[in-house]
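re the bet — no i am not wrong, look at it urself. input seq straight from the record:
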Amino acid sequence: MNILDSFSDTRVLVIGDVMLDRYWWGSVSRISPEAPVPVVKMDSMTLAAGGAANVAANVAGLGAYPILVGIIGDDAEGEMFPEVLGKVRVSHEHLITVPGRPTTVKTRIIAHSQQMARIDQETDTYLSRVDEESVWSKIEPLIFDSQAVIISDYAKGFLSDQLLRRVIDSANKANVRVFVDPKGKDYSKYRAATTITPNRREAADACGLEENTQQMVDIAGNRLLVGLDLNSVLITQGEDGMTLFRSGGNPVHLETFAREVYDVTGAGDTVIASLAVAIGSGADIESAAKIANTAAGLVVEQVGTTTISLAELRNALRDVL
C-alpha cells in the first residue's frame, strides 16, 4: 500500500491523559487461607506507556512521528516516564510535571495470561487556571506543526471543556483534523472535531440509550454524527467489529480482523492512532477505518498494553485492502 509509505512523513500531536501501565507477572498454585482469593506468586514486573502515552507509542510503532503532551506528577512514577517512553521511541519533551499531583498508574496483576486484579493510582481533579494556561502555551504552536491531532480523554482532569474547545477550534482554523477517543456522557465538548471513536457502551451512554436497544449502533452513530457536527463517527464493537458513519455517505460495517481475542487492553488506543496516522498521511476515511480495524485485530491477539509495527500491519493488510 502506497499510503503506508507516507506514514513516516506524518506528525501526529497526541494530547491527553498519560498513564504508566505496570504489570506484575506471576503464577497461582493455591487459594489464600485468609480469604477465598488466589495467591499470586510474583515472578517479574514490567512497565509500559498507557493512556495517551500508549496512543503515542502506537503512532511511533506505525512509523509516524508522535508529539505527546500530557501531565505527570513529581513522584517516583513520574520519574520513570522518560525511560518508558524512550523504549517506544516517544519523546518526553512536552510532558508537564504538576507538583503534588500523582502520576496516573494502573497496576495489573497477571497470572497464567489472565488478569487477576487491577490497582489504580490517580486523581481526576482539574488543573488550576495557571497550570492550564501553561499547558495551552505548549500545545498551541504544536498544532500548526502537525498533520493530525489526537485527543485521548480518560477523564483524569487534564482535558477540561475549555482546553478541549481551544484545541478543536485552533486545529479547525489550521485545517488540521482532530480525532477524539471520548469519555463521559456529555459529548458536546467534542463538537466540531473531525472524528470520534467511542465503543458500543460509550456511544449508548452518550445518546441516553440502552446498550441492547435494537439498532442502537445505527441510532447512536447517526445521532452523534449530526448532533456534534462531525465528519465521521467510528463505533467499535469488540468481537463484532466496528461501524463507520460519515457525513454524506452510507454507514460501513467492518467485521473484526482478530482471530483470537486474548486482551482488549489498549485496543481503543490502537484504533485512534492508526486512524489518525492513516488520514494524516492522505487516506480517505473508509480506507483509514479498514486500517484501524486491522490494527486493532492484531493488538487484541496479544496480552497486555502492546503496539504493532508497520511491518506487521503491512503484512496483515495484504488481504484487506
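see?? The radius of gyration is 19 Å. told u. also The first helix runs from residue 2 to 5. so pay up
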